[in-house]
Design a protein that fits this description.
This protein is an alpha/beta fold. It is built from 17 helices and twelve strands. The chain binds 1,3-dihydroxyacetonephosphate and iron/sulfur cluster (SF4).
Amino acid sequence: MNELLGLAEVDMSGTGAVQTPEGKAAIKQRIARLLEREQAVLVAHYYVDPDLQDLAEETGGCVADSLEMARFGRAHRARTLVVAGVRFMGETAKILNPEKRVLMPTLQATCSLDLGCPADAFGEFCDQHPDRTVVVYANTSAAVKARADWMVTSSIGLDVVAHLHARGEKILWAPDRHLGRYVQQATGADMLIWPGACVVHDEFKGIELELMKRERPNAKVLVHPEAPASVIALADVVGSTSQLIAAAQSLAADEFIVATDVGILHKMRQLAPSKRFVEAPTAGNSATCKSCAHCPWMAMNGLANLAQVLETGSNEIVVEPAMRERAVVCIERMLDFAARRRVRVRASGDLARDAPLFAGIGPA
Ligand code: 13P
Ligand code: SF4
């Protein structure tokens, strides 16, 4: 099978990094043929390997944030969705599309937010606060979603909570504490917040970022809301991965400091080739860097394991039907809300047209 896949050129030691340009081209062609054979479409996140991002677009799939990945997978007529990202993204795709086969390059790619919010403990927390509307971030297991009233992603969390707050509802929020605090401050909603964090964004350092800003006074600072408050406080734009890419395209600046996973820089550089993008600091005097701005689980997706699952049909996502029936409610609620509000996450590059993308996002 290795020969068939062009895997002689491939390092199969975990990440599946392809070693030569010829090997890379061969395996990409092979994957494109397999996608066609399997009537499959590749749905990738902005944090995965640039080769996978490009391949998704070249083969009619998409590279997107978690909201758009869910919408794209649901709308697409492919029989198989191949999700390059982390497990909750594959599970969300399966929950929304029980009739489709959902494969992932690896089933080991989890998320610290998901790991830090076990369903049993979360269920007890919910039981203690029956008067609260339960809003969970997409980065959770199907079992946690099954307990929730709403699922949100970082593109839409602020809008949903503002809407619930306006209706007088009190919120129980899980699992990201930084995003929860950001949404709470921006909306003024009454929120009880689960103490989870993303191991990648938690590493960004406000003190070091301040020093970097002094060295680059004209640079705009783009921050994902999973980052700590000290980092968000220095941001020009706070938003989901798609919203940050939109800001990079649309804002009139030559240089940007980016506080999110470095995988995003690939798309930013493609869409705004004349601009400079610099990683926000995770190192320095106050550093305890474990991830250095790259998600270890997103990094498990590679060309080799992608080819392998398409070839063998392994790594299929399974969600037990009773669980699926409960979990789908909170996801559909978010998608209906997004459709009613006509939430758009992609930028055109024209600042005037894209202004609504930035509404409701910005420094805390
Ligand atoms: P987005 O929804 O902004 O793409 O974020 C997903 C994620 O896991 C960020 O760490
Ligand atoms: Fe989870 Fe953080 Fe990785 Fe996103 S970057 S998948 S939140 S661990």
